[in-house]
């Protein structure tokens, strides 16, 4: 069902200027909860969510055969607890602190630098490290209540410049 809903709702979401990040459908008896998660490089405001919720609801009403029975609709943006699973998630987490667990079981904290199509530069213990997305089991943003240290930002700037030079 989420695949069919994705095809129906993606044009509505992208037409409003957002990306359809995920659709989660859960059933509890004959009632369903349809959770539509949207994102944008510019963030998603409450007014945006309200307008998009009305549009998505109207579209679901036109395609009620995709959800058997009544449903509750939730249109939301991803929270900070969202795992970083796609290149665009890493790009949006630029300069944020992340907790990473690799596929071989290593767990560490780092700061996100330049994120490309296949890998990301992460500053770990003062050293820039290129990390392939395929080697990441789980990564989430760690909430910080103060600005990133200048030394880390400078180190990431130098690492980004070196990576750009290697790619050219």
How would you state the average pLDDT, rounded? Answer: 88
Share of helical residues: 25-40%
Rg over C-alpha atoms, rounded to the nearest angstrom? 19 Å
Biggest sheet descriptor: 5 strands, antiparallel
Q: Report the span from N to C terminus.
A: 44 Å
- What is the count of DSSP helices, taking H or I runs of 4+ residues? 4
Structural class comes to alpha+beta
Order of helices and strands: HEEHEHEEEEEH
Q: What topology, given as strand order, has the largest sheet?
A: 7-6-5-4-8
Shape: elongated
Plain-language structure description:
With 168 residues, this protein is of the alpha+beta class. Helix content is 33%, strand content 35%. It is built from four helices and eight strands. It has helices spanning 2-15, 46-62, 87-92, 150-167; strands at 19-28, 31-39, 71-76, 97-102, 107-115, 119-124, 127-132, 136-141. Strands 7-6-5-4-8 form a five-stranded antiparallel β-sheet. A three-stranded mixed β-sheet has the order 1-2-3, covered by helices on one side. Helix 1 packs across helix 2. The longest helix is centred in the last third of the chain and has 18 residues, at 150-167. The chain is elongated. The model has no long low-confidence stretch (mean pLDDT 88).
């Amino acid at each position: 069902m989420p695949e069919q809903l994705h095809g129906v709702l993606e044009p509505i979401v992208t037409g409003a200027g957002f990306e359809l990040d995920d659709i989660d459908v859960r059933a509890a008896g004959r009632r369903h909860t349809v959770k539509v998660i949207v994102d944008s490089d510019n963030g998603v405001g409450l007014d945006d969510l309200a307008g998009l919720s009305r549009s998505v609801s109207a579209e679901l009403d036109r395609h009620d055969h995709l959800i058997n029975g009544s449903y509750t609709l939730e249109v939301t943006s991803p929270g900070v607890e969202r795992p970083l699973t796609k290149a665009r998630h890493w790009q949006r987490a630029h300069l944020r602190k992340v907790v990473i667990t690799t596929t071989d079981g290593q767990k560490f904290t780092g700061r996100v630098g330049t994120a490309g199509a296949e890998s990301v530069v992460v500053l770990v213990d003062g050293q820039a490290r290129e990390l392939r997305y395929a080697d990441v089991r789980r990564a989430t943003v760690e909430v910080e209540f103060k600005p990133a240290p200048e030394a880390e930002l400078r180190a990431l700037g130098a690492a980004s410049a070196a990576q750009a030079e290697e790619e050219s």
